[in-house]
Amino acid sequence: MADKNLKVDELRQLSDDQLADTLLTLKKEQFNLRFQDATGQLQSTARVREVRRAVARVKTLQAQRKAAASKTEA
């Protein structure tokens, strides 16, 4: 995603596939940030926190959608 700060409202508008792609992108960024931190090249330590929270937001939305889907099937 181009926007660095993902809002919940923006994430809710995404489809399941787009949400999965966003999660993959965030996980890659998180890996790169950890690698930069380990090598001493990390510029913004606050970005680590932002990405971690964005991953949590995406996972929460995925879990909510899965629970809602299973509730409607039952």
From TrEMBL:
InterPro entries: Ribosomal_protein_uL29, Ribosomal_uL29, Ribosomal_uL29_CS, Ribosomal_uL29_sf. The keyword Phosphoprotein does not apply. GO terms for cellular component: ribosome. Signal peptide: none annotated. Keywords: Ribonucleoprotein, Ribosomal protein. It comes from the Bacteria. PANTHER family: 60S RIBOSOMAL PROTEIN L35/50S RIBOSOMAL PROTEIN L29, LARGE RIBOSOMAL SUBUNIT PROTEIN UL29C. NCBIfam families: L29 (TIGR00012). Belongs to the universal ribosomal protein uL29 family. This is Large ribosomal subunit protein uL29.
